[in-house]
Specification:
This protein is an alpha/beta fold. The chain has two domains: about 170 residues, Carbamate kinase, CATH 3.40.1160; about 150 residues, 2-Layer Sandwich (VC0802-like), CATH 3.30.2130.10. Helix content is about 35%, strand content about 25%. The protein contains eleven helices and 18 strands. Strands 3-6-2-1-9-11-12-10 form an eight-stranded mixed beta sheet, with helices on both faces. A six-stranded antiparallel beta sheet has the order 14-15-13-16-18-17. A two-stranded antiparallel ribbon has the order 4-5. Helix 2 runs antiparallel to helix 3 and helix 6 runs antiparallel to helix 7. The longest helix is centred in the first third of the chain and has 25 residues.
């Protein structure tokens, strides 16, 4: 019999009636002929509450004890879901991460899955039970409880689906799918019937908070189709999958917006081997992650301009670091622009279509939007723009690629 993994997020098990609804979905799948594994998150905002509680007790709670605490949320919900299924007259069993042999490394609060021992789950499925697994948690080699990072239940679900060679992983959540843009920012955004793993990874890494990024990497690696859908309706959601040739006809699948960015530019640096390494090393030592690094060389090759983008830092802190770099590396001049946003267009169709950049920059020009930096990769074009222009830029790009109608396509 095919195995189906169904993952339920916190809002989908927030109270007793939602728990019954989740239980009914699993029973329905069982009656339709699947062996069903449910992966469940903590109820509602339980995990946030537990984090706040820890902060009331300790200014710097140890990560091991945080994991011990946070993992309790999922233990509550799996037991209740199992009870709901039994109440409906079907057999179920709840299991913690340790009980399904979900082994992780020891990086508390951000652990990575190393292996899953599915023998026990298979035995229980073969006996006709619905198996309910606690999301987000595992154990390391010394049986310390670990967690996979906030939102990590998605990753538990896809990893289990891969290990069990499930036919799919269904993700029930409080949004009804993946949209061409955040509908709060772009009212004409459409729900996508399907999106490729790479496209979803790019969007997830650029502010779209639909799924834990690691879960999409796993889905891609093991070819697990992931259906994202609402737990409250029966409307079809979005399938995250290997792109079909037809999907590549769509040039841009979605657009995203990230805020709180700043850009540091050092002009007139001496062009010597090791310069960029030395500058970035100074920044890395302060644990400031940078991206969009660019270097341009002056006409005679003796001087360079180096710039990079930084997210979510105080202007004062950034200025201090930038001034120190200017001094240390004898830069002629320093530029610091804060209050920037990044607008990105993402689509695997860019690989095979041309004129994509021209269309994007044409749309931004028509809106008279200043561009502070451009970065491109195989399936992404992104621009840094003033924060005040960000929503206008997002809407303009969304429209330029015909995404207002994307729901009908693909
Ligand atoms: N309960 C955990 C969290 O809130 C894990 C999850 O929901 O995926 O982050
Ligand atoms: Mg989540």
């Amino acid at each position: 019999m095919p195995v189906l993994v169904q993952k339920f997020g916190g809002t989908s098990v927030a109270d007793a009636s939602r728990i019954h609804l989740a239980a009914r979905r699993a029973v329905r799948a069982l009656l339709e002929g699947d062996q069903v594994v449910m992966v469940v998150s903590a109820m509602g905002d339980t995990t946030d509450r537990l984090v706040r509680l820890a902060q009331q007790v300790s200014r710097r709670p140890s990560k091991r004890e945080l994991d011990m605490l946070l993992a309790t949320g999922e233990q509550v919900s799996i037991a209740l879901v199992a009870m709901a299924i039994e109440e409906a007259g079907y057999q179920a069993i709840s299991l913690t991460g340790a009980q399904v042999g979900l082994l992780t490394d020891s990086a508390h609060t951000a652990a990575r899955i190393q292996s899953i021992d599915v023998a026990r789950i298979r035995r229980l499925l073969d006996q006709g039970l619905i198996v309910i697994v606690a999301g987000f948690q595992g154990v390391d080699r010394d049986f310390n409880i670990t967690t996979l990072g906030r939102g990590g239940s998605d990753t538990t679900a896809v990893a289990l689906a891969a290990a069990l060679r499930a036919r799919a992983c269904e993700v029930y959540t409080d949004v009804d799918g993946v949209y061409t843009a955040d509908p709060r920012l772009v009212p004409t955004a459409c729900k996508l019937p399907a999106i490729g793993y790479d496209e979803m990874l790019e969007l997830a890494g650029r502010g779209a908070q639909v799924m834990h990024a690691r879960s999409i990497e796993l889905g891609k690696k093991f070819g697990v189709p992931i259906h994202v859908q609402s737990s409250l309706t029966d409307s079809p959601g979005t399938i995250i999958m290997d792109p079909t040739p037809g999907m590549e006809d769509v040039v841009v699948r979605g657009v995203s917006l990230e805020r709180g960015l700043a850009r540091v530019t050092l002009h007139g640096l001496r062009n010597e081997p090791g310069l960029v390494a030395a500058v970035l090393d100074e920044i890395a030592r302060r644990a400031i992650p940078v991206d969009d690094i660019a270097q341009t060389v002056a006409a005679d090759g003796s001087l360079v301009t180096l710039s990079f983008t930084v997210q979510g830092r105080e202007e004062g802190e950034l200025r201090a670091v930038a001034e120190l770099l200017t001094h240390r590396f004898h830069a002629g001049h320093l530029d610091l622009s804060t209050d920037l946003a990044r607008v990105s267009a993402v689509g695997a169709g860019m690989r095979t279509h041309h004129g994509v950049a021209a269309r994007m920059f044409g749309a931004l020009a028509a809106e008279k939007i200043r561009i502070d930096h451009i970065a491109t990769s195989e399936i992404v074009i992104s621009v840094l723009v003033p924060a005040a222009d960000a929503e206008g830029a997002l809407q303009a790009v969304h429209q330029a690629f015909g995404l207002d109608r994307a729901g009908d396509a693909a």
